[in-house]
């Protein structure tokens, strides 16, 4: 069982959401987790995808920033999928699953939290991206049920509030969670940690 008291270093992997775009300096969920006293290395990368997170190409996310930080492995928190769903051609659920499973294999034996990518509420309109995001969330949930060292965390319901997203040049709400949205993600992570820790 994962014991929060023994976690010294958390590796936060993801795209621009994990990187913190939209939240403001020090208000993204990795920074909020760092404020609890644990070391957090945020290797979020703008434009990142599930494929990029396992890319062995020079300059790819895996080789450039994830692999060099694997000494920080008490807990790996992974949130990829928003860009997969946003950009054509979107990977199928099976392709996305293969990418996630490869990532989990590479960071073994570290426990992994799979964070559900948030909904796309850009301008308040339904997006085809949400069809893929729904499928990707089902994939993540299924993986967590099958693998004992993997935990699924879904803050989708909390992130349906438009105030949970920042505004950008494309309108309101934007694509990236606001500081408030990052607080919601952080709280969801902490609730799961406490539950696993028996607190």
Structure commentary:
It is a single chain. This protein is α/β, with parallel strands linked by helices. The chain has one domain (4-196): 3-Layer(aba) Sandwich (Rossmann fold), CATH 3.40.50. 36% of the residues lie in helices and 12% in strands. It has 7 helices and 5 strands. The chain has helices at residues 16-19, 29-34, 61-66, 82-86, 93-106, 129-146, 179-196; strands at 9-14, 39-42, 75-79, 112-115, 150-153. Strands 2-1-3-4-5 form a 5-stranded parallel β-sheet. Helix 6 (129-146) links the parallel strand 4 (112-115) and strand 5 (150-153). Helix 5 (93-106) crosses helix 6 (129-146). The mean pLDDT is 89.
Throw out a few tags for this protein.
alpha/beta, 7 helices, five-stranded parallel beta sheet, 199 residues, Rossmann fold
Helix content: 25-40%
Oligomer: single chain
User: What's the order of the H and E elements?
Assistant: EHHEHEHHEHEH
How far apart, in Å, are the first and last alpha carbons?
Answer: 12 Å
CATH topology: Rossmann fold
Unreliable stretches covering 5 or more consecutive residues: none
The CATH homologous superfamily corresponds to: SGNH hydrolase
The chain-level mean pLDDT equals 89
Structural class: alpha/beta
Provide a compact summary of the structure:
The protein has 199 residues and is an alpha/beta fold. The chain has helices at 16-19, 29-34, 61-66, 82-86, 93-106, 129-146, 179-196; strands spanning 9-14, 39-42, 75-79, 112-115, 150-153. Helices cover 36% and strands 12% of the residues.
